[in-house]
C-alpha cells in the first residue's frame, strides 16, 4: 500500500469515495460537487484543501481530505473533513495509514490541534479515535447553515434595511 498526495487526475476516484461516504452516512443524495469542483478548488493557485490517497496496485482505495484553519485560542490547526476507505478494503490498515499521515503532517507543520467531526452513531470510529488519544467532545454541537438558509438569511437582512 502507498500513501501519497493526490493529483488532479485522481479526482474522479476521490469523488466516488466521497459519494460512498455520503451513502455510509445515510445521505446518498447530499453530494453536489463535481470532479471539476475538486480539481478547481484543490489544485488551483490558492487551494482550499489537500488530499492524500491510499493506493494498492495503482488503484485508489481511500482518501483523507483536510485543510488549515485558525483557532483564536490555539493558533494554526488542521480540520480533517473526510477520511474514507472503500468498503471492500476496510480492515487492510489503509484507514489507519491515512489517519496517521494526517497526524504526522500536522506534527511536521507545528499545528496546535487536528479536529474533525464524527456521527454519534458511528461507534467503531469513536472507539478508534479514543484509542488513538483523541478526545470526543460531547458538549459541543456542529452548527451548519446550508445554501437555502444562507439565501433566506441574506434576503431577510435586505428586507429589514
Report on this model:
With 161 residues, this protein is an alpha+beta fold. It has a single domain (2-116), classed as Gcn5-related N-acetyltransferase (GNAT) (Aminopeptidase), CATH 3.40.630. It has helices at residues 11-24, 35-42, 94-109, 123-131, 147-159, and strands at residues 2-5, 50-56, 59-71, 75-85, 113-115. It has a five-stranded mixed beta sheet. Helix 1 (11-24) crosses helix 2 (35-42). The protein is globular, with a radius of gyration of 17 Å.
CATH class category: Alpha Beta
Major β-sheet annotation? 5 strands, mixed
Contiguous uncertain segments of 5+ residues? none
The ordered string of helix (H) and strand (E) elements is: EHHEEEHEHH
Dominant shape: globular
The portion of residues assigned to helices is: 25-40%
Short description:
This protein is α+β, with helices and mostly antiparallel strands and 161 residues long. The chain has helices spanning 11-24, 35-42, 94-109, 123-131, 147-159; strands spanning 2-5, 50-56, 59-71, 75-85, 113-115.
Amino acid at each position: 500500500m502507498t500513501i501519497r498526495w493526490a493529483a488532479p487526475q485522481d479526482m474522479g476516484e476521490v469523488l466516488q469515495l466521497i459519494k460512498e461516504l455520503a451513502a455510509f452516512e445515510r445521505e446518498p443524495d447530499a453530494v453536489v460537487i463535481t470532479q471539476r469542483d475538486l480539481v478547481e478548488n484543490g489544485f488551483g493557485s490558492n487551494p482550499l484543501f489537500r488530499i492524500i490517497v491510499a493506493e494498492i496496485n495503482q488503484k485508489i482505495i481511500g482518501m483523507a481530505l483536510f485543510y488549515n484553519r485558525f483557532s483564536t485560542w490555539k493558533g494554526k490547526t488542521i480540520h480533517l473533513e473526510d477520511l474514507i476507505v472503500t468498503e471492500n478494503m476496510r480492515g487492510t490498515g489503509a484507514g489507519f495509514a491515512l489517519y496517521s499521515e494526517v497526524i504526522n503532517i500536522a506534527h511536521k507543520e507545528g499545528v496546535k490541534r487536528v479536529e474533525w467531526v464524527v456521527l454519534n452513531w458511528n461507534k467503531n470510529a469513536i472507539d478508534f479515535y479514543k484509542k488513538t488519544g483523541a478526545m470526543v467532545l460531547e458538549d459541543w454541537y456542529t452548527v451548519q447553515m446550508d445554501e437555502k438558509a444562507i439565501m433566506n438569511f441574506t434576503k431577510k437582512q435586505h428586507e429589514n434595511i
